[in-house]
């Protein structure tokens, strides 16, 4: 019996040793695991900042939507494939998409939750609630969803938001911002550039859950910090006018940019064809949405490209403006003796490069007004390739403009290195190359935005502002409170760049070129048809050769350019228009900008522009569509009137 | 005469044993309430305690010899209960086991707990004659049969956990009935060698199925076992015990492991884990100490018993109790596999509670009559 008593004590003694190990030695660790398994942080998404036009009209806002999610913690290690059938049936989600999500989760252990359905309908939410017992891991989560203007208005400027991609998550710059899988970030346009301001900071609810993941109580709530509102430099009235002009153009493809040359603020930036950014913020996770996206990607008309900053074209005769300034500045010609022979063209070796007409021996002003190629061939030869390179450098044409929109591309500009790269079999720079480089073809391939910046600089005596779309980030909170943040204006994204960069242009030189441009519109030049009495437009037409001479018909017609500003001697806005494959600039691009000038004139002068057909400009913010019928009618009428203008 | 007996009875009554048992039950009731604050298990446990005390007093003041002489009747009655529970109309099926009989107003009653007492009585009666010689083969076979009948019926429920707790009852009785020491040592050595060897062979030949192997692995290494599947109970219990720390967890009862239902069966099988979470190492060691004193008290009582029958019964009870305590707490601490064995006096459950008090009543009765010969 003593033996049994000893055995009893020994057995219970063994248990107390084990107790000591579990509770005293490892107690803290187990306690931590136990606490963690009953705590969940449910994110409260921060409302994203709104985007306004320069007059405070709403361009982009957010509305609350509901997502059905699977909480990650509750499905850890579970086989999700068994959920595919009931969920796809109950919530009407495509099985393939669910399968794809569940597959993705396996490789991305950091996912907090798995989206099952975005934009859940009241019916879906009811389904989730009524199936709480079978699928306790399902949860409905509120998420603000971005709402962009209808009809792709301003799509290329505002961009869009989207879920952070696995590739982005790998990048240090995104990790540094504390972004995590499932976060919605700006993926294009203003949304991308100013994402840090717009995004805000998510808050969270810390809750206690039971073993099946059902919420029992809330311990803590950290309120989200809302994103800050942005005021853009865009003027919706001009923007709508510009987009309408592109829609009504011959090929419906092109770009119109309008800016204030006195500070670089972009008033309108239209690129056509456009796309619906709501696709990315709302429909991309559906099967139809994916198909729509693939279609956009493969569209030969490249609607996703922002033509203002992501397309390069030969500037054609618009190139003659910086050429004229540089020629005079470098002394290749002088104000007193600026006359050069046209000759109907020029003979270099055995090749004759012709001019449109026989212009005799024009001076610089006439050469601009008549767009005399022969004149500029000879001016180019006088300046030489080095002179042209110096001009390119001075006007920053070999750099990005620094606009605050992502993915701006670089220009191709003439230089000896460029020719070596382009024609390795004939690497030597020859006079014929200088001729080509001097009238905006072959070696000159530039973005519309960089052309706009050049023309803007000429209009305001050489001050080159960085074009930008941010007017200000609105102040947050009230002054004096600890979380107050003052308003922030535009700052160059590259702080080392001067804004403006000043090109010293003697006033007399600048005035001469401006007069030449004024004559283009007002004194028998190539764009005489858009003349506005009492509102002096200075401009220059251009035609960018897309294919070789003789083939430039139909689909392969030349691109039509028109660069301009007004009023000519005290400029308020500068404008660049490019209508793709439409032919001569004077016929096709110039009338398009006239529509935007009309809108500007109405707005600032409060009267009908001289010589314009009466036009209705939608005063409402674009996303308000209470009267779609009415608006449609207005657009149709406007389109008819525009055709009338074109036919004149 | 009656008065004299009574006077002496009160004096010889094992107060420590009774009060210790009541104390453990009351402490357990608090833990049951912690484990299931929204349920009425703790009320039922108090009712069970009252019934148990009545049974204990009734038996304590009855001559245990008369009762043991009636052992075959009780034994058969127990077997009848075990047969009855197998009928779907009478027996209640929970978690795949038909082991409970519904008792109006009080919940369920588990006959296999109660039959432990009658089986121990039967064994004590059979082996209780004074003896000089070592056990004969025949005696061992009869003893085995006495055990085999209820075990066979319980296996039909099927409740393997309960069956295991019957084994030590016979083992202790045989051990104390002058079984040859050689046999004891030989079987002990055989067990130590054969069980692991058989396990290894089983894995090699595939006789031990993967899930069974997994079950063993859970005990060998609970941290790396399937924490969400087969190892869930063990892992959650370890967490619950660990969270208790030195003096108990700081989180409230509602947000405890049991309150949030992370710990399954908190008021029955895992009541010790709940105790550990609430009272920490300090409380746990006190509970163990209480059991040690209780068991020691019983062994002392057995030693003082005036006849072999009484001694054997108490020691059989001690054997069963010790084994059950060890398995249940071991389960909570992750060192024994999860089998549904209640912790005597603490787990919620009428049958276990009343049966334990009946046995304690016996022990007291034995003590009271140690000089009455």
Question: If you had to describe this structure to a student in words, what would you say it looks like?
Answer:
The complex is a heterodimer of chains A (648) and B (373). Chain A has 648 residues and is α+β, with helices and mostly antiparallel strands. Chain A has 2 domains: 193 residues, Penicillin-binding protein 2a (Domain 2) (Alpha-Beta Complex); 341 residues, Beta-lactamase. In chain A, strands 2, 3, 4, 5, 10, 16 and 17 form a 7-stranded mixed sheet that branches. In chain A, strands 12-11-21-20-19 form a 5-stranded antiparallel sheet, sandwiched between helices. A 3-stranded antiparallel sheet of chain A has the order 1-8-9. The C terminus of chain A is likely disordered. In chain B, strands 1-2-3 form a 3-stranded antiparallel sheet, with no helix packed on it. Chain B is mostly helical. Chain B has one domain. In chain B, strand 2 and strand 3 form a beta hairpin. The two termini of chain B are 16 Å apart.
Keywords:
heterodimer; A: 648 residues; alpha+beta; Penicillin-binding protein 2a (Domain 2); Beta-lactamase; 7-stranded mixed sheet; 5-stranded antiparallel sheet; 39% helix; elongated; disordered C terminus; B: 373 residues; mainly alpha; 3-stranded antiparallel sheet; 14 helices; 3 strands; globular
């Amino acid at each position: 019996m003593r033996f049994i008593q000893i055995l009893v004590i020994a057995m219970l003694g063994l248990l107390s040793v084990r107790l000591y190990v579990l509770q005293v030695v490892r107690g803290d660790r187990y306690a931590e695991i136990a606490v963690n398994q009953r705590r969940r942080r449910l994110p409260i998404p921060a409302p994203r900042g709104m985007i306004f036009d320069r007059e405070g009209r709403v361009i982009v806002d957010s509305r609350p939507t509901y997502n059905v999610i699977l909480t990650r913690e509750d499905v850890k290690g579970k086989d999700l494939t068994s959920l595919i059938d009931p969920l796809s049936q109950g919530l009407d989600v495509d099985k393939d998409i669910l399968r794809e999500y569940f597959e993705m989760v396996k490789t991305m252990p950091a996912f907090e939750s798995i989206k099952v359905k975005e934009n859940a309908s009241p019916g879906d939410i009811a389904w989730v609630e009524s199936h709480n017992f079978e699928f306790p891991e399902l949860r409905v989560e509120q998420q603000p969803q971005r709402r962009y203007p209808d009809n792709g208005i301003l799509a290329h400027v505002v961009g869009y938001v989207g879920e952070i991609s696995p590739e982005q998550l790998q990048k240090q710059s995104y990790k540094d911002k504390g972004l995590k899988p499932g976060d919605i970030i700006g993926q294009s346009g203003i949304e991308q550039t100013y994402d840090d301001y717009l995004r805000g900071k998510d808050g969270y609810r810390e809750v206690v859950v039971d073993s099946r993941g059902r919420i029992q109580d809330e311990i803590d709530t950290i309120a989200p910090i809302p994103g800050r509102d942005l005021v853009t430099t865009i003027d919706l009235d001009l923007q709508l006018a510009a987009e309408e002009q592109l829609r009504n153009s011959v090929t419906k493809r092109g770009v119109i940019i309008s800016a204030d040359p006195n500070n670089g603020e972009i008033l309108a930036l239209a690129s056509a064809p456009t796309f619906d950014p709501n696709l990315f913020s709302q429909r991309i996770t559906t099967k139809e949405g994916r198909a729509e996206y693939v279609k956009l990607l493969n569209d030969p008309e490249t609607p996703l490209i922002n033509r203002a900053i992501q397309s390069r074209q030969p500037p054609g005769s618009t190139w003659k403006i910086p050429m004229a300034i540089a020629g005079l500045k470098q002394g290749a010609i002088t104000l007193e003796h600026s006359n050069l022979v046209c000759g109907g063209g020029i003979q270099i070796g055995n090749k004759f490069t012709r001019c449109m007409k026989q212009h005799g021996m024009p001076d610089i002003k006439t050469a601009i007004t008549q767009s005399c190629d022969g004149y500029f061939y000879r001016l180019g030869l006088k300046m030489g390739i080095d002179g042209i390179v110096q001009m390119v450098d001075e006007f920053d044409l070999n750099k990005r403009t620094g606009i605050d929109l992502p993915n701006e591309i670089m220009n191709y500009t003439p230089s000896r290195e460029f020719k070596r790269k382009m024609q390795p079999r004939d690497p030597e720079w020859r006079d014929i190359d200088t001729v080509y480089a001097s009238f905006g073809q072959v070696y000159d391939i530039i973005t519309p935005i960089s052309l706009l910046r050049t023309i803007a600089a000429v209009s305001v005596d050489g001050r080159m502002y960085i074009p930008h779309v941010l007017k200000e980030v609105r102040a947050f909170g009230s002054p004096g409170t600890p979380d107050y943040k003052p308003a922030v204006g535009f700052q160059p994204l590259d702080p080392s760049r001067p804004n403006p960069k000043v090109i010293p242009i003697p006033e007399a030189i600048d005035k001469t070129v401006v007069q030449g441009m004024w004559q283009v519109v007002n004194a028998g030049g190539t764009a005489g048809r858009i003349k506005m009495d009492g509102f002096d437009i200075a401009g220059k037409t251009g035609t960018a050769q897309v294919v070789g001479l003789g083939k430039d018909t139909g689909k392969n017609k030349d691109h039509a350019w028109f660069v301009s500003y007004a009023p000519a001697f005290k400029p308020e806005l500068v404008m660049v228009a490019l209508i793709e494959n439409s032919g001569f600039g004077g016929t096709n691009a110039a009338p398009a900008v006239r529509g935007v000038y009309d809108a500007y004139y109405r707005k600032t002068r409060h009267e009908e522009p001289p010589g314009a057909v009466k036009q209705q400009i939608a005063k409402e913010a674009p996303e308000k569509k209470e009267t779609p019928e009415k608006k449609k009618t207005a657009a149709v009428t406007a389109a008819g009137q525009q055709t009338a203008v074109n036919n004149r | 005469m009656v008065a004299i007996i009574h006077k002496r009875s009160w004096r010889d009554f094992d107060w420590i044993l009774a009060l210790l048992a009541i104390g453990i039950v009351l402490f357990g009731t608090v833990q049951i309430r912690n484990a299931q604050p929204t349920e009425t298990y703790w009320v039922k446990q108090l009712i069970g305690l009252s019934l148990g005390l009545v049974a204990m007093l009734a038996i304590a003041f009855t001559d245990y010899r008369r009762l043991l002489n009636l052992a075959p009747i009780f034994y058969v009655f127990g077997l009848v209960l075990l047969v009855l529970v197998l009928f779907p109309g009478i027996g209640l099926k929970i978690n795949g086991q038909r082991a409970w009989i519904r008792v109006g107003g009080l919940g369920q009653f588990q006959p296999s707990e109660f039959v432990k007492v009658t089986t121990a009585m039967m064994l004590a009666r059979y082996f209780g004659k004074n003896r000089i010689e070592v056990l004969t083969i025949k005696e061992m076979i009869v003893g085995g049969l006495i055990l085999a009948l209820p075990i066979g019926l319980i296996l039909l429920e099927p409740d393997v956990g309960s069956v295991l707790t019957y084994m030590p009852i016979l083992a202790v009785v045989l051990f104390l009935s002058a079984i040859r020491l050689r046999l004891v040592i030989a079987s002990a050595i055989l067990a130590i060698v054969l069980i692991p060897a058989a396990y290894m062979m089983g894995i090699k030949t595939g006789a031990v199925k993967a899930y069974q192997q997994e079950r063993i692995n859970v005990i060998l290494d609970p941290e790396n076992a399937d924490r969400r599947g087969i190892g869930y109970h063990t892992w959650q219990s370890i967490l619950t015990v660990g969270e208790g720390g030195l003096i108990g967890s700081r989180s409230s009862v509602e947000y405890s492991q049991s309150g949030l239902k992370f710990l399954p069966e908190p008021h029955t099988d895992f009541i010790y884990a709940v105790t550990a979470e609430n009272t920490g190492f300090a409380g746990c060691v006190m509970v163990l100490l209480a059991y040690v004193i209780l068991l020691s008290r019983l062994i002392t009582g057995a030693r003082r018993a005036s006849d072999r029958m009484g001694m054997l019964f108490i020691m059989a009870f001690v054997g069963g109790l010790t084994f059950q305590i060890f398995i249940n707490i071991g389960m909570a601490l992750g060192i024994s596999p999860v089998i549904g064995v209640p912790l005597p006096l603490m787990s919620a459950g009428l049958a276990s509670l009343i049966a334990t008090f009946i046995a304690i009543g016996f022990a007291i009765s034995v003590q009271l009559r140690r000089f009455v010969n």
